[in-house]
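Structure first, sequence second, as always.
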């Protein structure tokens, strides 16, 4: 048996369900998910190890039209994932309104000249079920033979088999390798500290509206695991203008308290014991348009 290993990039429109799919693939929550588009900013790696091979799935930001500030970073990050992956999965939701947006993803993936397949997501949305065949037909206009897998995060029983199909299909497309790329016990190479920052950002998305979540970054300033059953975490919620600060804090600090409480509960599940979490709201004027501040917050493409 030849052992295979490599990277499979998940490429799709914002909100297609890429991060949800990644979490199902690794059977753990490593990538944040919200109902809002443009949730994922930096690539997230999920490792799946089997006897026949190891797939490193790479969740990426949704492919965007605009190219300014933070959006330019997101676009470049998705391009980098396409370029650096060994194979690609085009992730297309039946929720996608425009045919052109589906075609854009399929063409983008095909034009990479890497082995690829298609995952159609959200197939449980019954009022849109007629679109499953529509999307398949669209894909087949570009490649009549490409493998298409239908996925729903809502199907509990069927989802296990579908996930195995995604993993086996991915392995079959990967190059031969003498050994795995990561420790086979690992499901993500990201540190708990990194995951914590993302969890706080997810709770900001859930508790805030309009442009606010898009103009927020989170920086973990102190992560102390020196006590046996208590991790102490200090993090800054970085807003882009003065007027956003009182909104994030909320009346009687209700909003920031809700963000903190929800994040703490989830972090406690992740680390398996009690967590002390202290959040501060900090203003960095228009950080999302400033390359230096973006870089400082980890949003720069030249790091890899
Ligand atoms: N009904 C249904 N909803 C889904 C499914 N997969 C994802 N969702 C929902 O779709 C929304 C977007 O999911 P994400 O996984 O964050 O999508 P994404 O492609 O990572 O989005 P970006 O990071 O913004 O590019 C969330 O509200 C998910 O709960 C699915 O199979 N069925
Ligand atoms: Mg995502």
């Amino acid at each position: 048996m030849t052992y295979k290993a490599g990277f499979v990039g998940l490429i799709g429109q914002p909100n297609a369900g890429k991060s949800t799919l990644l979490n199902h693939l690794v059977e753990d929550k490593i990538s944040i998910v919200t109902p809002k588009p443009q949730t994922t900013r930096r690539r997230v790696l999920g490792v799946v190890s089997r006897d026949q091979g190891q797939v490193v799935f790479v969740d990426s930001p949704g492919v965007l039209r605009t190219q300014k500030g933070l959006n330019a970073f997101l676009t470049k990050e998705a391009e980098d994932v396409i370029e650096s992956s060994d194979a690609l999965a085009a992730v297309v939701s039946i929720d996608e309104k425009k045919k052109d947006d589906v075609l854009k993803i399929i063409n983008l993936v095909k034009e990479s000249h890497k082995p690829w397949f298609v995952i159609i997501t959200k197939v449980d949305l019954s009022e849109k079920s007629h679109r499953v065949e529509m999307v398949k037909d669209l894909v087949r206009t570009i490649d009549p033979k490409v493998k298409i897998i239908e996925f729903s995060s809502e199907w509990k029983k069927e989802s296990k088999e579908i996930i195995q199909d995604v993993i086996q299909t991915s392995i079959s497309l990967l190059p031969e390798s003498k050994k795995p790329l990561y420790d086979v016990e690992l499901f993500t190479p990201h540190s708990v500290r990194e995951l914590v920052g993302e969890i706080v950002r997810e709770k900001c998305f859930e508790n805030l509206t309009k442009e606010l979540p898009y103009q927020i970054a989170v920086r973990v300033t102190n992560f102390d695991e020196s006590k046996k059953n208590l991790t102490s975490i200090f993090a800054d919620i970085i807003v882009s203008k003065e007027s956003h600060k009182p909104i994030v804090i909320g009346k009687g600090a209700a909003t920031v308290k809700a963000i903190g409480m929800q994040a703490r509960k989830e972090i406690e599940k992740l680390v398996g014991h009690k967590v002390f979490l202290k959040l501060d709201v900090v203003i960095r004027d228009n950080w999302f348009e400033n390359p230096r501040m973006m870089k400082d917050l980890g949003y720069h493409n030249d790091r890899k």
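Margin note: The CA atoms of residues 149 and 166 lie 7 Å apart.
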